[in-house]
Amino acid sequence: MSHRLSILGPGGRSISIVAAGSGPPLMLLHGFPLDHRLWKEQLDHLADRYHVIAPEFRGFGDSTLGEQSYSMSDLAQDVELIRRHLAADQPIFLCGLSMGGYVALEYWAHYPQHLRGLCLTNTKPDSDNAGGKQARMEMARQAQTEGTKAAVGTMLDKLLSSHSRMDRALRDTVEAMMFSIPPASIQAAQQAMAARRDFTTQLKAIQVPTLVLTGSEDSIASVQHSQAWAAEIPHSTFREIPHAGHLCPLENHQAFNLELSRFLQDINHNSE
Ligand code: MLT
After folding, report:
1. Which atom of ligand 1 is nearest to the CA of 128?
2. Which residues form the pocket of ligand 1, taking CB atoms under 6 Å from any ligand atom?
3. pLDDT in tens, 19-38
4. Do the Cβ atoms of 210 and 237 come closer than 8 Å?
């Protein structure tokens, strides 16, 4: 059974977290434009072995936005604040999807000593090219002038596999997350992602065991690209999740949970 809690961030910001279970801490970082509901199946099915902690980024879910602008590094500082509050100062397993993966890489850059394992799912280490940055500024503008639905509504089909697109309940779940995000939060997240740094040349320096996952039909973080950059990380494993697009933890949670559980168990086993 999961429960919601909130902790106070700098400047009186409220950081909302949904957590379940007990055991080694496993923190799950959602993508854009989503919230903790991305991790429903992990909160339900991994909580018998792990303390599953699913925070919501600034301006998403029940977390307040605070000052309008922040960076990926600021979000990594929030992750550290949560670790200190909820993980009794233990090292954590950290799993980030897409935007959550950008934050997980920033967390690794700042706090590698606090990581037991890293899972980077449906994400990439590259920063944006000029066209990508421009598209983000356009989405930020559209959110402010025409509202959330107009800005992110067309993303839905891009996020899902051909199979998931026909699943009405899944579409409703994803739309509920997307459409609950205030325009100011879309703008702040797009600006932060546009300014994120490039990790491609640092992958070789990641010493923590790393699992890289992506969906067989992910058009944002393709199998080919994910497999290539995963190979740069010394202690990495790459797995393709079948019948899934950009939202593996929801679209094929059985396969996703199996891969993540195996990875975590191996680390637990090797450190016994
Ligand atoms: C996400 O799912 O978090 C987004 O695709 C990230 C991005 O816009 O780069």
Report:
1. 9
2. 31-32, 98-99, 193, 220, 246
3. 999 999 999 999 999 999 99
4. yes
